[in-house]
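User: Can you help me understand a structure? I only have the sequence.
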Amino acid sequence: MSVLDRYALSRRRLLSVFGGAAVTALAIPMESGKALAQAVFATYPFQLGVASGDPSPDGFVIWTRLAPEPLEIGYGMPSAPVAVEWEVGDAPSMRNIVAKGRAVAPPELGHAVHVEVSGLQPGRDYWYRFIAGRERSLTGRARTTPAWGAAVDRVRFGVVGCQNYEQGYYTAHRRLADENPDFVFCYGDYIYEGRGNRIWNSADGPVENVRQHFGGEVYSLDDYRRRYAQYKMDADLQDAHAAAPWFAVWDDHEVENNWVGDHDPNGVDPKVFLLRRQAAAQAYYENMPLRAASFPSGPSIRIHRRAAFGGLMDLNLLDTRQFRSDQPCGDRYGVTCPGVDDAAAQVLGAEQEKWLYNSLGASKATWNVLAQQVMLMDLDRVSGPEVGYNLDSWGGYRTPRARLLNEIRNRKVRNVVVLTGDEHQNYAGEVYLDGAKPEGPPIAAEFVVTSISSGGDGIDQRADMAAIQKASPMLKFNNAQRGYAICDVTPKAFVTEFKVLDAITRRDGKLSTRAKWAAEAGKPGITQA
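Assistant: Let's start by predicting it. Here is the structure, written out as tokens:
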């Protein structure tokens, strides 16, 4: 039985279910002789935009979610599945449709649609749209990856994350959309879970937020759905999604700040916290262009996966939250303690580690990228004789960090580049087994990309970071403004361009390139480009 058949409804039930809602229903005949709902909407249903993601050589996922009243409980939709048509064209005009079909927007998934399109040509642009009843979505651009093992001259992509809705506008997303990247890597913190606040206490004192979250802190599935809806209603974010396919992973704020495994930082009973994780995992899947392989199972969702770009680059997307052991030293910042050396500590977990090591060992690509969430450099966060780490980063987990770096070195994995977020700052640096006592060539290059909006406008460099950089030879560049990065990858070099805005608390912030740093193929370390 097909998905459409499983969700087929009789005309009588459709009319009874839809009767008092914001939509009315028409019956669409099915081959089985039954019917599926097609809605006539009182309000535009595609208010959350469209997105594509997880591209492959022959296709990609296309996504939308029907929400005529996005911030209401039930988001203006009835408790019934609805038919949605989809089309893929080979040009923005959509005059030549190369693939099309009908999908189901089920109420169990917040009326989200995930279509895995296949049978397309590798390494080329496509465009897509959705139709529900008489309503048509905007048109998005997607792009397939190159054929397996193909010679590829260039891949150019964006890196984004940490987009606290309250603390600034999404001007960076609009500017990224203008870049026409091959894809976008989102390292996480797509939403923030906290309650709406007019004021936030920055390092410089109270700051008035430019806009506010709807409602209180999010816990239930309805809460998370409404928070995603508020974020996705932003036109600049919709533009970035419509401009290119995304590879998305989550970090902590998609659930709760600094969570790991079944540990709630506020000491909530693990059984209760897993209920919150379950709601968060479902809402994340509902709102991201993910394949069915990432369909959540209870509180778990598989987001570690791999994408290949011909023989040029392998992209390993990691999950540093679900399988990690609790942070040492009470998760205090800028300290150290014996727990940092815990031999049983985990960051990726045994299964994901094995998967990653096998992927790296089998790779024949020129560049091997670890696309993940928290800094791999063991940067000492205290200037002076004391030693202290960000214990929510790999620096707080010496044993699994050493295990990863030794695997890279012992397997002689070529040209490893680490892409990271979380810090709300830009960093370019080199990764050693022990950054305090660097021996031999660096094992990897690391580019940490700043936030879209988290932290407000920011400054060029904080005084504390200037002192830390001066004492840390591994750290070549640091900046504390908002923005995104463009990675330009060729067989000769992996160049990261840090793009920053002079302000994000107003909508007319000016974009500039703050710095470019490059790793050269076959040469350890990074240089300014």
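Now, to help you interpret it: The chain has two domains: 3-143, 155-528. Residues 1-33 have pLDDT under 50 and may be disordered. Let me know which part you'd like to focus on.
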